[in-house]
Amino acid sequence: AGVGKSYNIKEYIKKRTGYDENNIERIVFHPDYLNTDFVGQILPTVNTEGKIDYQFKAGSFTKILKKAFENPNEHFFLVIEEINRGNAPAIFGEVFQLLDRKADGSSTYRISHDLLADEIFGNPNQTIYIPSNLTILATMNTADQNVFTLDTAFQRRWTMRMIENDINNCDYRTDPILDTGVTWERFNSVLNEFILEKNKDTLSSEDKRLGAFFVR
Fold first, then answer.
1. Residues 176, 186: contact at Cβ < 8 Å?
2. How far apart are CA 198 and CA 208, in angstroms?
3. How far apart are CA 129 and CA 210, in angstroms?
4. Averaged over 97-115, what is the pLDDT?
5. Residue 68 is inside which H or E element, if any?
6. 8 Å CB contact between 129 and 113
7. Residue 177 has what pLDDT?
8. Rounded Cα distance, 89 and 104, in Å
9. What is d(CA 177, CA 180) in angstroms, rounded to the nearest whole number?
10. 46 vs 36, 52, 133, 194, 201, CA distance in Å?
11. 136-172 burial by CB neighbour count: b if 16+ within 10 A, else e?
């Protein structure tokens, strides 16, 4: 925890396009998050005549995908925090097929989805794909317990990057802890060495270390 995953994503987006909230859809996966939240679902609504209508309510993925198609000259981002806290393959559902990308950044394969196509293109017969101006970014903490595992087929469709646990990136590293002569940098370093030593026989010992930004 506290190694700056969300911060890194924010800085990545800033360097690519600047940071425009209108071009970003940010969601958090959790055990109760479903495919209907992600893609959308048909829900009853009361129309202007006071009668019940059933209309498609777009989920986060569909909203940002529609924006990307409507504004091909702008770049859009879907940011998924804690992707391993939900059942990611089930949440993505058939959208999983779209994650393979060609050299130009668009989906290698397309899917048929009447509701999505009608919402985005106004044509239920058009196939769905992710255009090159939509990037999906996600964070996960490998130290979390009791979370869903990401299978190999799902993982290989992402470019995985380790965010280093580096106290030197913190501007408060030389500040002393209250009523002590110990700096946060010293505290962090010694504590993490202790954790590594005590858990040296455990495969995930590095994941148990105190994050550099955790004390903030």
1. no
2. 11
3. 40
4. 95
5. helix 60-70
6. no
7. 86
8. 25
9. 6
10. 20, 5, 35, 61, 61
11. bbbbbbeeeeebbebeeeeeeeeeeeebebebeebee
Tokens of 100: 């393979």
Among the listed ranges 47-61, 96-110, 133-147, which one has the minimum average pLDDT value? 133-147
Q: Give me the count of residues in the chain.
A: 216
Question: Could you count the other beta carbons within 10 Å of the beta carbon of residue 123?
Answer: 10
At residue 163, the pLDDT reads 78
Residues contacting residue 117 through CB under 8 Å, at least 6 positions apart: 123, 124, 125, 126, 127, 128
Task: Quote the DSSP letter at residue 42.
Answer: E
Phi, psi of 70 (to 5 degrees): -75, -20
DSSP 142-177: TT-SS-PPPPHHHHTTS--------GGG-TTTTSBP
Give the whole-angstrom CA distance, residue 34 versus residue 62. Answer: 14
13-25: pLDDT as tens digits: 999 988 899 999 9
